Amino acid sequence: MEDSLRTAALELLRRHARDSGDAISRESFLELCQKQGLADAPQAEQFLQSFHRRGEIYEIRPSIYRPLDLPRRGAGSHVAPTAIVGPNVQIGVRTYVWHFANLIRDITIGEDCMIGAYVQVDPQVTIGDRCRIQPHSIISTNTVLRNNVFIGAQTVITNAPYPPSKKLAQTILEEDVVLGSQVCLLPGITIGAGSVVGSKSLVTRSIPSGIVVMGIPARRRYGRVDYDAKMKAWERFPDSDAKIQAGGE
Fold it and tell me: Are 244 and 226 within 8 A, CB to CB?
């Protein structure tokens, strides 16, 4: 009987937190339990302590609690039921988080983003608006993605120059950066606005704005203007000869 009451009390806490901005005070929870006839104040207090002890809620400030599995989500956003979203994760409006993504904690994601399946985003990461992270990529702690960044599948952004040192570097991707699939960025670099990194490249140093790099190590091949021209040509010729017509690499 007590287990069923406990389950009902936890669901009540989650529902109220969702309706009131993702958090609930101790006093409000005790009052709700009594009004719903679930428990008197001492028993409700025991439930609250039990939720906290088992990691089902966390204390965001003294006597204010938030369910662990209830991310702060903007209107129109979607989080797949199999995604893992830890504490203090903010998800912007119309942003989609797909199956088995792992958003660990202390992450801010902007509007109109897509976090693909099996993506891992480590703590203290900031993601701007209209970013797309394709499946199986890893975004390490301290990374900053500005607006309109595209990250291809199986890309890894690293942060430890000398692992397993606890001193971590910061990597920044400025606005409109494009990373192809299976790119690896070494720690502490900046990719300038509008630059493109070709698939399977290893980036060992910072990249200026507006260029296309590729290779191991990644080196400049041409400019972003040329890249955009190639992309437009590809879109105009969507047939088997498109690569030749577009002058693709």
Answer: no
| Domains of the chain, first to last | 2-67 (1.10.10.10), 72-224 (2.160.10.10)
Specify whether the CB–CB gap between 25 and 14 falls below 8 A: no
Strands (E), 19-143: 24-25, 57-61, 64-67, 72-73, 78-79, 84-85, 89-91, 96-97, 102-103, 107-109, 114-115, 120-121, 125-127, 132-133, 138-139
Q: Give 246: exposed, middle or buried? Use CB within 10 Å, 0-12, 13-18, 19+.
A: middle
39 vs 2: CA distance, rounded Å? 10
Distance CA 222, CA 65 (A): 52
CB atoms under 10 Å from CB of 217, counted, come to 12
7: phi then psi, degrees, rounded to nearest 5: -60, -45
From first to last of the 249 residues of the chain, give the pLDDT tens digit: 467 888 888 888 877 766 655 567 888 888 888 888 888 888 888 888 888 787 777 676 677 777 765 656 777 888 887 888 888 888 999 999 999 999 998 999 999 999 999 999 999 999 999 999 999 999 999 999 999 999 999 999 999 999 999 999 999 999 999 999 999 999 999 999 999 999 999 999 999 999 999 999 999 999 999 999 999 988 887 665 545 443 444
Among 185, 177, 189, 183, CA closest to 201: 183
* Interatomic CA distance for residues 228 and 226, integer angstroms: 5
Q: Give backbone dihedrals phi and psi of 207, rounded to 5 degrees, phi first.
A: -115, 130
